[in-house]
Specification:
The complex is a heterodimer of chains A (324) and B (272). Chain A is 77% helix and 0% strand. Chain A has 15 helices and no strands. The chains are: A mainly alpha (324), B mainly alpha (272). At the A-B interface, helix 2, helix 7, helix 8, helix 12 and helix 13 of A face helix 4, helix 5, helix 8, helix 9 and helix 10 of B.
């Protein structure tokens, strides 16, 4: 039986520690760990948990019982370990205000957020790429200028102001659409428009630049001179290369989707996780805030890792190149 | 005509808008921005049935919207500017440290750059503001953290290439100190790239502050920022649209002007 040290050594000899995938994986683990530490410290620095739960005027015996029950009389390192093991199992404690487990509250609200975010992402990406492609094909003509102007406007229009304008025109002045809630299909229209506008502008600008760049490459001219059909060049050369370029902003987009959810859900009183986060911050419901921050943070880390892996798989230059 | 060839009309207009709004926000007003008068609640703007005393109307406490918007511009612009500078400072220092010391320090700084780049600003801000009081300078520093990683990445890359090939090595060979190499040689060389990044970042910083204040987590009353005005007024959209829409229009106009200026600056610096 080899000693643990040699076993670890053998393991690391087997895994290429400088490989792209390994570096990305380690970084994701470090980030996830840091998010856990920060969320742990967050709730600790927010005050004495016993007093938060039991109120300012709690009896000393009750505080002592509470501390013992939740292990708060133990050293902070041990507390972190038990917090860590509970968090991994999805146990984030109880909400202070709704007196229900944080996990349950989050699971109740999750479908509303996903039903808004997934269509928003699909619309932004599909239409953004299409508009960017169209603009690049008609470069420096009216279509291109129009799309560019529209995307600059969409990019500068803050989503919270756009949401308010939509409510003003379509709910108050015209009375066509409901301003809050998520009961019917018509409730989805304005929140979707508000989220999609800014992201659509970003995808349009980015894919326009990507397509222009790709079509200026010499190999495209090479294919053309060999008589390869334009449609073939588009589907087998331009599109895969553009998709690859789009992946580079994938990580950024996940983050923007999350902040879009937080702002848009608040404007339209959408009963999802974003509006829950804002209301629980205002109510100082720390366990709920902590659970939501952990959930959002870890989801972003996992999504980013998936994008990095996909990027490495699709592009050998990245995989075999520098590790940073 | 030469002037407009060099500086396109849209760019001149954008600069004009920002200069006008900044200067106008410092003009004296007949009302204090927190002066309440419950007798004149929800007075509409001048051309919508209002009067000359309150050209842009009043809000739910009878406070003059012109004065409030002016105060909002002062505070929003200042915070966006200060936040951008704080971010640039933190980023340049850390980026240079990463390039200068390399090894483990470089690794640690780059891990933080990666984390910052993947986490949306609002999430970090909410995590911090749920435990720290949202005072004025906390907001400024928080906004600095919204964009430091771009400066860090730029400074690190540019410093590494300067150190590895060329002039920084020559200066070092001649006996120049590290301080001298950085301040007299590398910093002036990378400053144009940093300035481009600052102009590109500025509208984002402004929107970040506005969204925080809109959500009620930014600037605290009695202080006002444009985002705070917009957020407070949203409740009264049904009765008094101007309380929300006017500050929103100013935010939109400002970020649009800043985006146009940023695009122009980066185009120009890029081609030269």
């Amino acid at each position: 039986m080899a000693s643990p040290v040699t076993m670890v050594r053998r393991l690391f000899a087997f895994i290429d520690t400088r490989s792209y995938f390994f570096v990305k994986l380690i970084r994701a683990i470090i980030t996830a760990f840091l998010i856990l530490v920060i969320s742990f410290l967050m709730i600790r620095s927010s005050g004495n948990p016993a007093q938060i739960y039991l109120g300012e005027e709690a009896m000393p015996e009750a505080v002592e019982y509470f501390n013992k029950k939740w292990g708060l009389d133990k050293p902070i390192s041990i507390q972190f370990v038990s917090y860590f093991s509970r968090a991994i199992k999805g146990d984030f404690g109880h909400s202070l205000i709704k007196s229900r487990p944080v996990y349950q509250i989050i699971m109740d609200r999750l479908p509303a957020t996903l039903s808004l975010m997934i269509p928003a992402a699909i619309i932004s990406i599909v239409f953004g790429v299409f508009l960017g492609m169209t603009a690049s094909a008609h470069r420096k003509k009216m279509t291109d200028t129009g799309i560019l102007v529209a995307s600059t406007l969409g990019f500068s229009l803050p989503n919270f102001f756009f949401g308010v304008l939509l409510i003003f025109f379509f709910s108050i002045v015209l009375g066509w659409l409901p301003a809050s809630g998520n009961n019917t299909i018509s409730h989805y229209i304005m929140p979707l428009i508000a989220i999609v506008t800014a992201d659509l502008a970003i995808f349009t600008r980015f894919s326009r630049a990507a397509f222009i760049d790709i079509y200026e490459q010499h190999y495209i001219t090479g294919f053309r001179s060999l008589g390869v059909r334009e449609s073939r060049i588009f589907f087998f050369q331009a599109l895969p290369n553009a998709a690859n370029a789009l992946l580079t902003i994938g990580g950024f987009y996940i983050g923007s989707l999350v902040s879009g959810a937080i702002v848009t859900e608040t404007i339209f009183a959408w009963p999802g996780l974003g509006s829950l986060l804002i209301s629980s911050v205002k109510a100082r419901d720390f366990p709920l805030v902590q659970g939501l921050i952990l959930l959002f943070g870890i989801s972003i880390v996992v999504a980013n890792l998936a994008i990095d892996f996909l990027y490495g798989i699709l592009d050998p230059r990245i995989r075999k190149g520098a590790t940073t | 005509m030469m002037f407009f060839k060099r500086y396109p009309p849209l760019f001149v207009f954008s600069v004009g808008v920002l200069v006008f709004l900044t200067l106008a926000s410092f003009l004296p007003t007949p009302w204090d921005y927190n002066h309440q008068d419950l007798m004149t609640r929800f007075v509409p703007p001048l051309f919508f049935g209002g009067n000359i005393q309150h050209p842009l109307g009043t809000d739910h406490l009878g406070r003059d919207m012109v004065s409030r918007i002016m105060a909002g511009i002062r505070i929003s612009y200042f915070i966006a500017l200060a936040g951008t500078l704080v971010g640039a400072f933190i980023g340049v220092v850390l980026g240079f440290a990463a390039a200068r010391f390399q090894g483990i320090i470089d690794e640690i700084i780059m891990i933080f750059v990666d984390i910052q780049a993947s986490m949306p600003f609002i999430l970090i801000a909410i995590a911090l503001l749920s435990v720290v009081d949202n005072s004025f300078w906390v907001i400024v520093i928080l906004l600095g953290f919204a964009g430091w990683e771009k400066y860090a990445r730029l400074t690190r890359g540019l410093t590494l290439s300067a150190v590895n090939h060329g002039y920084a090595r020559a200066v070092a060979a001649l006996g120049g100190s590290q301080k001298r190499i950085f301040f007299s040689h590398i910093l002036p060389n990378i400053s144009s790239v940093l300035i481009v990044n600052m102009t590109l970042n500025f509208p984002g910083t402004m929107i970040a502050e506005s969204s925080l204040s809109f959500l009620g987590l930014g600037i605290k009353p009695p202080m006002v920022s444009l985002g705070r005005l917009l957020g407070e007024g949203q409740v009264y959209l049904l009765t008094a649209w101007w309380v929300t829409v006017l500050p929103g229009l100013i935010i939109f106009l400002s970020t649009l002007a800043m985006t146009i200026i940023g695009d122009w600056v980066s185009d120009r610096m890029g081609t030269e």
